[in-house]
Design goal:
Length: 402
């Protein structure tokens, strides 16, 4: 097997409205591919995001909003932040620095944004190349991303057409005959990273051809490379988890993992109380019958409790914390119970659950315990609203002592 990587020189400065596929085909025809005289069936044309964004008019003036303003507009969900660096999820589902907003290789005072639909962009370029060059080629649109666990940047696929973006090898055998259980190869990312070897940021080469790659598998878009949220073990930093935790307005469909809930409970319990005691207890309603009893008790309570039953409906389980009932002058058990509930809410959020806490609804519990409320835990609703952080001055929350 022989794989060739060929940079395409001679592509002119791309402007809004340009037919990028035809520009690439014309450059190859003029000899911009060196020894590569023409495009052939099975070639993969790799194109940088920057020229795609230029052709689609996704280059914007930096002012008056500033780069931070454009990053906020392009962000669906914050993932991490340190100083001016923001790691965010775009509306496409990409997790990258500054939501893909970039000032490199555009004019001074301008910023490039990611294409609206990179897979659709790749398909348009593929069709234009087929028309202009008469070859059935694949197209990969790339951008440069960092990696959470490694230093340095690498080109990845954000758009794909005519190429299997992933190759599922599960069920096949390796060289020793062992059956592969989890191996899914990110082929489009491999093509993107390889092409980066001949498309340096300072070289002015916005496209390359990969010839000879094994393209086995069903054609899928680059969106197939995005990991589903429920499988993402590193969805948020701890600080971002605290910032983004919100009371659930509803619960999504599907069962919840009892094991994951118990892991959250264990994490919340791992913080010892100052005096070494544990003046609170927990009960859980897992079964449908038990959940109906909890909601029924709330409805029969009337007033705020009945209203809370509606907000808790749809949860996959209920957790009922209680504090040891003691003298009215001793508030320590209540404070300890409340602190535990807050830790549990954060732990459950970190596990990917939707949570809603309705305080002071359960009433006195048996055996000298005072019910603190009902915590509903369920699946998250599909995200519909863009992520927005409240804007406030943190210093205003702190009163400095003399």
């Amino acid at each position: 097997m022989r794989v060739e990587l060929v940079p395409i020189h001679g592509i002119p400065e791309v402007r809004r409205g340009d037919d990028l596929g035809r520009l690439i085909a014309d450059a190859v025809r003029r000899g911009g591919g060196g020894a590569l005289a023409r495009l052939e069936d099975g070639d993969v044309v790799v194109v940088t995001q920057k020229v795609v964004s230029k052709a689609e008019g996704r280059v914007v003036p930096e002012q008056p909003e500033g780069k931070a303003g454009w990053v906020a507009r392009e962000t669906r969900r914050g993932v991490a932040r340190r100083g001016e660096l923001v790691i965010s999820e775009t509306r496409h589902g990409f997790v990258c620095a500054n939501a893909g907003v970039d000032a490199s290789n555009v004019g001074h005072g301008w910023l490039s944004l990611l294409p609206d639909d990179p897979d659709a962009s790749a398909e348009r370029i593929r069709r234009a190349l087929a028309s202009a060059a008469g070859a059935a080629v694949g197209v990969v649109v790339t951008d440069t991303f960092g990696r959470a666990w490694r230093t340095g940047l690498v080109d990845v696929a954000i758009g794909c057409a005519g190429v299997p973006s992933v190759v599922d090898l599960r069920g096949s055998k390796d060289a020793t005959g062992r059956v592969l259980d989890v191996t899914v190869v990110a082929l489009a990312d491999q093509l993107a990273a390889a092409s980066g070897l001949v498309m340096g940021k300072a070289d002015g080469v916005p496209a390359a051809v990969v010839r000879g790659a094994r393209l086995e598998g069903p054609v899928e878009p680059a969106s197939a490379l995005l990991r589903p949220p429920e499988e993402d073990l590193f969805r948020e930093t701890p600080l971002q988890a605290v910032r983004s935790a919100r009371p659930a307005s509803g619960f999504g469909p599907g069962e919840i993992s009892r094991e994951a809930v118990l892991e959250a409970v264990a994490a919340a319990r791992s913080v010892p109380e100052p005096d070494g005691s544990r003046p609170w207890s927990l009960a859980a309603a897992w079964s449908e019958a038990a959940r109906r009893r909890v909601l029924g008790d709330l409805v029969r309570g009337g007033g705020p409790a009945a209203e809370a039953a509606g907000r808790l409906s749809g949860a996959g389980c209920f957790i009922l914390p209680a504090a040891r009932a003691v003298d009215e002058d001793d508030r320590a058990p209540l404070l300890a119970g409340g602190a535990f509930v807050q830790r549990l809410l954060l732990a459950l959020h970190a596990q990917g659950f939707a949570c809603r806490w309705e305080a002071q609804l359960a009433g006195p519990a048996e055996g000298g315990w005072l019910g603190l409320g009902v915590l509903g835990v369920g699946a998250r609703m599909p995200a519909t609203d863009p992520f927005a952080e409240p804007l406030f001055d943190p210093a205003s929350s702190l009163r400095e002592l003399d």
